[in-house]
Specification:
The complex is a heterodimer of chains A (48) and B (305). Chain A is mostly helical. Helices cover 90% and strands 0% of the residues of chain A. Chain B is of the alpha+beta class and 305 residues long. Chain B has 13 helices and seven strands. The longest helix of chain B has 32 residues. Chain B is globular. The chains are: A mainly alpha (48), B alpha+beta (305). Chains A and B meet through helix 1 and helix 2 of A and strand 5, helix 6, helix 11 and helix 12 of B.
């Protein structure tokens, strides 16, 4: 697993660990990261 | 003849399977019945030690949580409480239903009640010390709140201020002062980024004053194990996708890594919680009487309304 994926997996894992209040406050940030990861993956596949 | 025997065996197996499924389906119903459950398969109330609690048991990967002054939201489903809501609920999930026995389930239920008794706006905020204790135990969330763009902390504090009767603003009880000391002592057992913090330790201390601490430990360990199994992780990811409204598209390698991380984190949480529960300098009797305190305070608040 490369370093970028490891960071992404950590973000998901940290979110799962948080209490419901923290999850409510952080869900938009996580959604943004997910979209960011998706567009990165898309660009990567287009370049290839 | 052998065909008939095979058919009979298969029918018996099917019947057995049906019986198991039906017994699983009614396990939570039977458990809640002993607390005088009133309601349907989605929502209802139970009565524990003379106090009524709202129960949310909807069968879904996500749940709607009311975080009081911080707003409402949808998060992945888990057994928890929305203690900041004006009408808090205890959310029970499938892993709670699957716990091995009622002693462990009872201890976990008391842990959730412990959150309601110690971390809700209504129960602990009738004096300055009580309000500070709620703020202090919620500080882990607050550090994240403070990093946000809106001033959630101010909103939260204002809401707490409103709930303190004027005559109580300068007074504090021995119990509240002792609890403040406990919260300071619990700090040394906290680790950044873990779901083992002051509010969890207080809820554990409450549960161990009302049920056997060993059953709590085993129940929580079993709960974590179920939540972080292959199926548990799959459900957590489904819930997470519903919450953020986006598909995660994770590879098998990434899912395995999440499972590994969750299991390590659960083990660390357990270790921290065990250490905190063994800390002899904590005054646990503070959490013994909160049932009476809670009733008294909520009755006073109702009267003031």
């Amino acid at each position: 697993m490369d370093n970028k994926n490891e960071k992404f997996v950590k973000k998901i894992s940290d979110f799962m660990d948080a209490d419901p209040v923290t999850q409510i406050l952080n869900k938009e940030k996580l959604a943004e990261s997910v979209e960011e990861e998706k567009s990165k993956a898309k660009n990567k596949s287009e370049e290839a | 003849m052998s065909d008939i025997i095979t058919l009979l065996i298969e029918s018996a197996e099917l019947l057995n399977e049906g019986a198991v499924k039906s017994s699983k389906k009614h396990k939570l119903d039977n458990y809640l019945k002993k607390y005088g459950y009133q309601g349907d398969k989605n929502e209802g109330t139970i009565k524990v030690d003379g106090k009524e609690y709202k129960i949310d048991r909807k069968n879904s990967h996500t749940m709607d949580v009311d975080a009081g002054p911080l707003g409402k939201g949808t998060v992945p489903r888990q057994t928890s409480t929305d203690s900041l809501a004006s009408e808090p609920k205890i959310h029970l999930d499938k892993n709670f239903e699957k716990i091995k026995n009622n002693k462990r389930r009872d201890a976990i239920l008391q842990h959730e009640i412990g959150h309601l008794k110690n971390h809700s706006l209504a129960s602990s905020s009738n004096t300055k010390e009580g309000r500070d204790a709620v703020l202090d135990s919620m500080s882990k969330s607050q550090s994240i709140v403070n990093s946000g763009t809106s001033d959630y902390k101010k909103q939260f504090k204002d809401e707490l201020e409103k709930s303190i009767p004027d005559k109580s603003k300068e007074s504090s009880t021995k119990k509240e002062l002792a609890r403040k000391e406990n919260l300071e002592k619990f700090k040394k057992h906290e680790n950044e980024g873990q779901h083992a913090d002051r509010s969890e330790y207080e809820a554990d201390a409450y549960a161990s004053q009302h049920k056997n601490g060993e059953h709590l430990k085993r129940g929580v360990r079993e709960y974590y194990k179920k939540a972080n199994s292959d199926k548990g992780i799959k459900n957590q990811i489904k819930g997470l996708e519903k919450t953020i409204g986006s598909k995660l598209e994770l590879t098998k390698e990434e899912k395995d890594e999440i499972k590994k991380k969750q299991n390590i984190s659960a083990q660390n949480d357990m270790n921290q919680r065990t250490k905190a529960s063994k800390d002899k300098s904590i005054n646990k009797s503070v959490y013994r009487e909160s049932a009476e305190m809670y009733n008294m305070i909520s009755e006073t608040l109702e009267f003031l309304d």
